[in-house]
Amino acid sequence: MKESTKQLFALNGLRLDRTIHAYVYFSWIDRYIKTLMAIARRWVRVLPRGRFIFDYFFNRYHCKVLTEEQAVKMLRLEQDIEVAPELSSRVIPYPHANHIILNQPQSIVVMDCACRIERGIEDPEDLNVCFAVGEPVASFWLEHGERLHARRISAEEAIEIMRRERAKGSIPTAWFKDAAGDRFFSICNCGPDTCDALEASRIAAMLQIDNPPDITLASGYCARVDRSLCTGCGTCVKSCPFRAVALDGEDKAVVIFESCMGCGLCVDRCKQEALSLVQDERKGIPLDIDELS
Questions:
Q1: Is the pTM of this model over 0.85?
Q2: Which residues of 67-78 are buried (b: 16+ CB within 10 A; e: fewer)?
Q3: CATH 3.30.70.20 occupies which residues in the chain?
Q4: Helices 16-27 + 29-46 axis angle, to 10
Q5: 220-283, what's its fold?
């Protein structure tokens, strides 16, 4: 048995079910994601009021949107981090997979994105965008992920990939999973048309229930418009992956608070500098590794 496999198994202790789950998930993540999405797409049509399966998976497998600055801080970490459980569970308010623990975070491996494979994307540059950050997941991906072109990269290479993808309209997200020892394990670059997590959120919103579950947490920020600077060009509307910006009757940008996840893409794109990100407690606690540690 490879050393990375032993370390991955150790994350889940005596939970044999999670140990098997972890091996299957991390070894065949592309097939795992494809199967989950097929179930979700069918479930919402057959059982439009059945929230159980979404609650079950979203509580155990979810992400938090990162601003560019937050992602850079995590990718440049050089020391281990373990946020106190009571604080961590407030930043990631799910009953499972809510530990912010990074062991050897300078160990970064990039691999083909399972969501983009599921979408039929074939360009190697567009595929190789998903990061395992820290051990033991990084080494497990490296030793088992040849099929998905896993390779070790530096923090600066990861930041370059993240910024390249951001320029194309993707946003960095921090991922947590029960099979990863109930902790953070990955940063992926999620695009509005290439991310199954964003689609899963939209599918869950189609359920005919009150307060449908969500797989995605906001960054802790919300966009704000300075109407005196806005020219109504509509660039922010086109760039928002969450459809959270619109133009009003005066051709001024308005932010739909409930939909805004605080990713900052609209801020990046606005040439008039009419948009800014503002921390808002209603959007949760930011995953700012400097502040939390």
A1: yes
A2: bbebbbbbbebe
A3: 220-283
A4: 100
A5: Alpha-Beta Plaits (3.30.70)
